[in-house]
Design brief:
Elements: H1 4-14, E1 24-27, H2 39-46, E2 51-57, E3 60-65, E4 69-74, E5 79-84, E6 94-99, E7 104-109, E8 115-121, H3 130-133, H4 146-155, H5 161-165, H6 176-186, H7 199-220, E9 248-252, E10 255-259
Antiparallel strand pairs: 1-6, 2-3, 3-4, 4-8, 5-7, 6-7, 9-10
Helix pairs in contact: 1-7, 4-7, 6-7
The protein binds a DNA duplex (14 and 14 nucleotides) through residues 1-3, 6, 32, 59, 74-78, 93, 110-114, 156, 158-159, 163, 166, 168, 175-178, 234, 253-256.
Length: 267
DNA sequence: ACCCCTGTTCGGCG
DNA sequence: CCGCCGAACAGGGG
């Protein structure tokens, strides 16, 4: 599920644990979940530390612990964060759980496309690791300028807009449904060459979709209005919320793309 | 049984 | 070397 707003929503679910000390850690022996990190190191590293911060950047998560220890994660396709009572028994898909006196902070992912990606001690509780600070500007940040959008469109002028919007190096946090929503609002076909898009308009619509998604989905997972393509794009037989034409669903670069053939004509 | 999938990475190819 | 693309990853749900 998780794109920008869903990741923000899940991150918020762990914030009640901020300030609480981890007394016990469940870290399953799942090499796919703990890729370049050993579950033993996570178990030993987190025990006795307090969770100090929860951050997101696009679809990335970063948890800060006392003593300047940082753990980064990604939710992949099916990852989720949740909290549970302190006596919680992790199920077989809950590969990581941090137990504080008050609750269990649980990271579940049945498909294992997500997991813990980095685990490192910098010794500085206030400053995230260098690699985190070097991530590209987020869409709602000051650094996400019209010039930057223009550079992306110029650099990949012949690439279809849809797959370009999914490029996390340029558009952190944009996933499949957000990309479809942006193109719908711009009235551009998903296969439109990126070079034909207007950078200012793209930036404005991207920021609008991100802001609204964070406000609506990121807050409490409520549904966006019916006027969004979001409400209609998931299944076959949906109708355009603007003109009622049957929506078209097709596969572009291996990903489902949904658009209105009337509002977003090809060519 | 079969097909689908809101993400990322990797290898092959031009 | 770069960009593009499909396949692979893994497993639950329709």
């Amino acid at each position: 599920m998780p794109e920008l707003a869903e990741v923000a929503y899940y991150a918020r679910l762990w914030t009640p644990g901020i300030g609480e000390t981890v007394r016990r850690v469940h870290a399953a022996e799942k090499p796919r979940f703990f890729r370049d990190v050993s579950p033993a190191a996570v178990r030993e590293g987190l025990a006795g530390r307090a969770l100090l911060s929860v951050r997101t950047h696009g679809k990335n998560l970063l948890f800060g612990f006392s003593g300047g220890l940082w753990m980064a994660g990604h939710l992949g396709m099916t990852g989720e964060l949740k909290t549970a009572p302190p006596d919680h028994e992790p199920d077989k898909h809950e590969h990581l759980a941090l137990f504080t006196p008050n609750r269990a902070l649980v990271f579940r992912d049945f498909r294992l496309f997500g997991g813990v990606r980095r685990f490192e001690e910098t010794g500085d509780e206030t400053l995230p690791p260098d690699w985190w600070r070097a991530l590209p500007p987020e869409i709602l940040s000051e650094g996400f300028t019209k010039e930057r959008v223009a550079a992306a469109l110029r650099r990949h002028a012949k690439t279809p807009l849809k797959p370009l919007l999914l490029d996390q190096a340029w558009f952190p946090g944009v996933g499949n449904w957000m990309a479809d929503e942006v193109l719908f609002r711009l009235k551009l076909h998903p296969a439109t060459p990126a070079g034909k898009a207007d950078p200012a308009a793209l930036r404005r619509v991207l920021r609008g979709v991100c802001r609204a998604a964070l406000r609506i989905i990121g807050a409490d997972w409520s549904d966006p209005p019916k006027s969004w393509l979001f409400q209609h794009r998931w299944r076959d037989g949906g109708a355009c919320p603007r003109c009622a034409a049957p929506l078209k669903r097709e596969v572009l670069r291996g990903r489902t793309a949904c658009h209105c053939p009337v509002c977003q004509p090809a060519g």
